[in-house]
What we know:
- The protein is an alpha/beta fold and 499 residues long.
- It has helices spanning 2-8, 41-53, 55-60, 79-90, 109-123, 135-138, 146-165, 186-189, 205-215, 227-233, 239-255, 263-275, 285-302, 333-336, 343-364, 374-389, 408-432, 434-447, 452-462, 472-497; strands spanning 68-72, 93-98, 127-132, 172-178, 196-199, 311-315, 326-329, 449-451.
Amino acid sequence: xxxxxxxxxxxxRRAHNKRLPQYLERGVDVKFSDVAGLGKIxxxxxxxxKFFTHGEMYxxxxxxxxxxxxxxxxxxxGKTLLAKAVAGEAGVNFFSIxxxxxxxxxxxxxxxxxxxxxxxxxxNAPSVVFIDELDAVGRERGLIKxxxxxxxxxxxxxxxxxxxxxxxxxxxxTIASTNRPDIxxxxxxxxxxxxxxIYIPKPGLIGxxxxxxxxxxxxxMAEDVDYMAIASMTDGMVGAELxxxxxxxxxxxxxxxxxxxxxxxLLQAAQMEERGMLDRKERSLDTWKQVAINEAAMAVVAVNYxxxxxxxxxxxxxxxxxxxxxxxxxxxPIKFKEGMLTRQSLLDHITVQLAPRAADELWFGEDxxxxxxxxxxxxxxxxxxxxxxGGLSEKHHGLSNFWVADRLNDLDTEALQIVNMCxxxxxxxxxxxxxxxxxxxxxxxxxxxxxxxxxxxxxxLHGSIKPMPPSILDIxxxxxxxxxxxxxxxxxxxxxxxx
Length: 499
């Protein structure tokens, strides 16, 4: 009987004298095929679906079905969409509420809403209860004083009781989302309430390509759209941002009176998502050239170092009130985002940050120095202090207590020596690559932006780049291409046999 009910799809049970459930979300037809970039996370979610579709099999074998699943991850990665996909794949009812709706100034209102939510879910089981932004009500108890804190604590207590009521039965599964799991009450996240915690990370390169293609399904895309180029430019972006890029590109297409979305539309939309709208105010030729020298210097110096040479984009077009352009580099996230920098990588980073200051001196002379490089120079000074404090310098190798009064001068002196050394390295590279600098500056002044292909074409023609070992990103890209070629070679005989 239970299997027959599941096959027919979930229905809302309603007596003639009762109104429809308040928290039921109708028309949820999201499937896993509508959610891209999941990777191995999909296996976890498919297992949750099996708890509904094959619940009796689990129970016969003595397996306790989890009553709660906590989806953790940064904003915009698709936690809500994943919860809907679980309900859609399982064919069960989907009840949703934001945790902030539980919190009221009147004592007892939040707890009554929790009871009402789970009463509706129980009456219309099997069902998924989705609580968005769980941290709004699930913070550790006792931190907030007064009546507001009492109401929040009472609401949380009722939620704990409701979660205990469905433990191991599989009729109602609670899925909650949060981007702050660290502040949740320990009693809420213990096994038996939220038994399973699934972290949803930001999508990688392949994941971003898949997400872009999903959102492009119903859009008039040009046949030659380069999804790889868009995905490379959007490193660090989440699904919500990628979806918005496709929508903005579609608006650009309509504005220009065209019938297809091109790669350029998507590239422009990606820049708008990352840096804001284009500022179209007029500038003098001298200003354009000075900004171009500033950005070209960073790109030309960076391309000499393995960890920084992956230039994705160079632009001098001002956006969102910023006068300067920017250079987008694709860097190894393990090194630069997780704080696993080597001594050489940190020195290379300092050198690149000092490149605009070196270019300003070489092209305009010391008498005409400006403050255009002030921000990057400050980054270099900060990185130099990190270098010394981390025990990476020659003089203070290892751990030292620099916060003693008579040692602070040693810290600043050593950091200054590192800055001066890296500054000379930057000047040397720029002097060797004057032809490349002039070519990049001329192109930037004319076009305002250079793509990866355009920039590296200039590097091949005019650059004097020292040989270097491949970076970790080069190695990963080579392995990925080798794997793709191997898969294509395996498919070719099968296709030929059908001819």
